[in-house]
Design goal:
Layout (H helix, E strand, L loop, with lengths): L2 E4 L3 E7 L14 E7 L1 H12 L3 E8 L2 H12 L2 E9 L5 E7 L5 E6 L8 H6 L1 H5 L3 E4 L5 H13 L3 E5 L8 H5 L3 E5 H8 L6 H12 L5 E5 L5 E4 L9 E4 L12 H15 L5 H15 L20
Parallel strand pairs: 1-4, 1-8, 2-6, 4-5, 8-9, 9-10, 10-11
Antiparallel strand pairs: 2-3, 6-7, 11-12, 12-13
Helix pairs in contact: 1-9, 7-8, 9-10
Length: 308
């Protein structure tokens, strides 16, 4: 197994509107669609569609949304041996509203995702040990993600931790993380530094590095990415890569596409410089915003021009 993801699995309920509603306001939408989502599922499917072998550790409800989610994984050649069904809760759902500029607001009802436990991670220990990259987020109980990060780290497996949605975390998470990936909002929650430009992003990255991860990658949306070096590269140097200019339609799932692309490159093309991994992942994420939806914007075995 090249990439294993421990994380969330949701059904996306997406409404498109000219403008996002203000509190108390009702607006008319222009169209509606459903799709498979959840940060963990998105990241896993992105990596799978780029061509690596993947597995998912997740929990869904005993309902149609859960059955559809499992079938979607199978359709994308994702190993579902450890996507289990619970009767304790409904499958996770995400209500997403997207305006004409591609901006969104999202409400998540986690449901079955919050029943994924450290015991579920231990049940998949043999797959984790045999993986090249393990990816975790925070749309499942934090202690479950920490269990996966620790187990992977103890067995020499590269760990990517996407701290989304951000909550206060103990240093144990950072010490078990090779690559920490987060956005401006999440960085502010974890550091107390309002991130509004490249300079404040660098301040936040330095503060996060002090907590112990191998490196930090801070995404700035249209502002690009600020990151620290790793491995043989200069870990004391912070680099900014501007985002590629594209005609954005819908930004939903772009951050997950970035993480999934990183997992792909770090498992399949280990000879690449880390700066090139970050650059290529940013290009892939940018191009997903030119299409509507979340996983529907992830291309199958197709890379943007100039990438391999």
């Amino acid at each position: 197994m090249e990439v294993l993801v421990v994380g969330s699995c949701n059904t996306d309920l997406i409404s498109y509107v000219p403008e996002l509603p203000r509190p108390g306001e009702t607006v008319s939408g222009t169209r509606f669609k459903t799709g498979c989502g959840g940060k963990g599922a998105n990241q896993c499917v992105m990596a799978a569609r780029l061509g690596v072998s993947t597995a998912m550790v997740a929990k869904v409800g005993n309902d149609q949304f859960g059955r559809d989610a499992i079938q979607n994984f199978r359709d994308n050649n994702v190993n579902v041996d450890h996507v289990t069904v619970t009767r304790e809760a409904h499958s996770g759902v995400a209500s997403i509203t997207v305006n004409d500029r591609g901006e969104n607001c999202i409400v998540i009802v986690s449901g079955a995702n919050m029943t994924l436990s450290p015991a579920d991670v231990q049940a998949a220990a043999h797959l984790i040990r045999g993986s090249k990259v393990v990816v975790c987020q925070l749309e499942v109980p934090p202690d479950t993600s920490l269990e996966a990060l620790r187990l992977a780290k103890q067995n020499g497996v590269l760990t990517i931790f996407n701290t989304a949605p951000a909550v206060p975390l103990s240093d144990d998470f950072f010490h078990s993380t090779d690559i920490l990936v987060l956005n401006e909002t999440e960085a502010e929650v974890l550091t107390g530094i309002p991130v509004g430009d490249v300079e404040t992003a660098k301040q936040a990255v330095n503060r996060l590095l002090a907590r112990g991860p191998g490196c930090v990658v801070l995404t700035l949306g249209a502002g690009g990415v600020v990151f620290s070096g790793r491995g043989s590269e200069d870990t004391d140097t912070l680099t900014h890569i501007p985002a590629e200019s594209v005609a954005t339609v819908d930004t939903t799932g772009a951050g997950d596409a970035f993480v999934g692309a990183m997992a792909y490159y770090l498992s399949r093309q280990r000879e690449l410089a880390f700066s090139e991994v970050v650059r290529r992942s940013g290009v892939i994420a940018s191009h997903t915003t030119t299409l509507p939806g979340t996983q529907t914007s992830y291309q199958v075995n197709i890379l943007p021009p100039g990438l391999t």
